[in-house]
Please model this.
Amino acid sequence: MNIVIVGLGIIGGSMAMAIKKYTDHYVIGINRTRATLEKAYKCGAIDEMGSEQSLRNADLVILGLYPELAVEYIEKHGDKIKKGAIVTDTSGIKSAICPKMDALAELHGFTFIGSHPMAGKETNGFQSADPDLFKGASFIVIPGNVQYSRVEVLCKLANDIGFSSYRFTTPEEHDRMIAYTSQLPHVLACAYVLSPQCSNHHGFSAGSYRDVSRVAKINAELWSELFMENREPLTKEIDTLIENLRLIRDQINASDRDELIKTLQKSREIKESLD
Model:
């Protein structure tokens, strides 16, 4: 296939590298910053430095853009995408963009399939891209009403570049689950390092500190958009977390060790049952 990747950040750049490393597809890169595009070409991550005109010959378009920018890009350039081509996004929210993308697909005659690669790092940009970023990762697919033969094309590519499994879902379920599995941990990490004790952690911290604080190295611009676009599911998860924190705090405050043991044991049993 001719594959156009729009946006060569960590996800788009890693996909370009992985496709070049593990498949024979032809990769064309489009990026706002020319220097990044040139770097991707020189290191072999892409076969060609493209422009919006490259969309006319693309069999697959991968949008490595923030959610709102992905929609805006297709609103502006969707008329250039050839009929029957597949377009997929890589964003961490779906309810806010899938209906808009579906409408644009119907208008312009391409096929839209939402997707979300469950992989990443604390660092961002093309300099953090890695052809093996997706090894063993899960690939979430939002197929909508698209024919399965078209969805298979995207799933095969995901398998070829290292994803070990894929999960079909709806935009609504995706956003509910991602609020819990991805967004809430980022909220927790950011809230955790806001403690005035954080600056004095050296010499007192080990694995527990690293595990909880790791994702506080956050891309504030991206994650604020993800949080805001997914506000209802995310705030429900935050409320649940606050309730559970309050429960443990109150048990400690009341010196109610018996109830505290029950709460901690219940947490351990839940975790062990899911490992």
Summary: The chain has a mean pLDDT of 97. The chain has two domains: 2-168, 173-274. The CA atoms of residues 52 and 76 lie 10 Å apart.
